[in-house]
Amino acid sequence: MAVTAAMVKELREKTGAGMMDCKKTLMEANGDMDKAIDILREKGLAKAAKKSGRIAAEGLVDICMNENNTKAVVAEVNSETDFVAKNDEFKKFVKDVAITALNSDKANAEELLNEKYLDTDATVQETLNDKIAKIGENMSVRRFERIEMENGKVAGYIHGGGKIGVLVGLETSSDSEEILALGKDIAMQVAAMNPKYISRDDVDAAYIEHEKEILKQQALNEGKDANIVEKMIVGRLNKQLKEVCLLNQAFVKNPDLSVEQLIKETSNKLGTEIKVISIARFEVGDGLEKKEENFAEEVAKQINK
């Protein structure tokens, strides 16, 4: 498979490795992007890829909750430009989409498009079409996720004016306001650190085996003796799991505590068990590709509409 400049550029963005290293590795991997990332990591030329793709599309994320914080939705709506994302009408539409999803039983965005939009006779799709015609820019209802707790609370956090939205489901028998405060702190943690899993118990075996192989090759490529490689793998894997598992992460507001210890402190204080059951984190445009467009052209485009 021929290696193109675009492929080299994508690999550089995903790994931070040098251009020539990316080109050589892509040729070695016969154009397989995932394999190329693994090779670069094995050679110590790249950090573990934390993104599945470029985060570049515009739009907004918003959250909506019911009155007693037992059910919530985080939703993402995309636009072509940041101008539209800052438009009050667009902001209201995103909020209304989240409200519609909260009150619906639809499972995904595709199904939600056929749902009635709030208390109108129009569907979400028809309303979206009207907005596109009025604003003059393509938009899409990309996704939403709903968390509902029968025994507990849902807390949420919006970061960057709607660039990141997080929901956290906490299982507990307490109705204390401190539960929601704890939930917001955990949601802020998820927004900042983007954990892959809640706890080590959630880490799938395939992920563990894949990372062990990467770490083994790293150690061997560093010239380490084979008899100490296994011990090194255990140490490095444990360090990595602390970074990707929410409960093991250092709490961003107090690094002396882990998130697990933070939860335990609140649990002891309130005299009730508290458990993180689910998390949902949306970052605008995660995994989507945005067309290149300079600022002057974007301004001119808006003026001419």
UniProtKB/TrEMBL annotation:
Highest rank taxon of the organism: Bacteria
Gene3D superfamilies: 1.10.286.20, DNA helicase RuvA subunit, C-terminal domain, Elongation factor Ts, dimerisation domain
Main location as per UniProt: cytoplasm
Translation elongation factor EFTs/EF1B dimerisation domain ranges (all copies): 72-285
InterPro entries in the record: EF-Ts_dimer_sf (IPR036402), Transl_elong_EFTs/EF1B (IPR001816), Transl_elong_EFTs/EF1B_dimer (IPR014039), Transl_elong_Ts_CS (IPR018101), UBA-like_sf (IPR009060)
A GO cellular component entry from the record: cytoplasm
Subcellular location: Cytoplasm
GO molecular function: translation elongation factor activity
Key words of the record: Cytoplasm, Elongation factor, Protein biosynthesis
Location of region: Involved in Mg(2+) ion dislocation from EF-Tu: 81-84
CDD domains: UBA_EF-Ts (cd14275)
PROSITE patterns per UniProt: EF_TS_2
Coiled-coil region: none
Signal peptide (from-to): none
Pfam families named among the record's database cross-references: EF_TS (PF00889)
Primary role: Associates with the EF-Tu.GDP complex and induces the exchange of GDP to GTP. It remains bound to the aminoacyl-tRNA.EF-Tu.GTP complex up to the GTP hydrolysis stage on the ribosome.
UniProt-listed PANTHER family: ELONGATION FACTOR TS (PTHR11741), ELONGATION FACTOR TS, MITOCHONDRIAL (PTHR11741:SF0)
Homology family: Belongs to the EF-Ts family.
Name by which UniProt lists this protein: Elongation factor Ts
Protein's gene: tsf
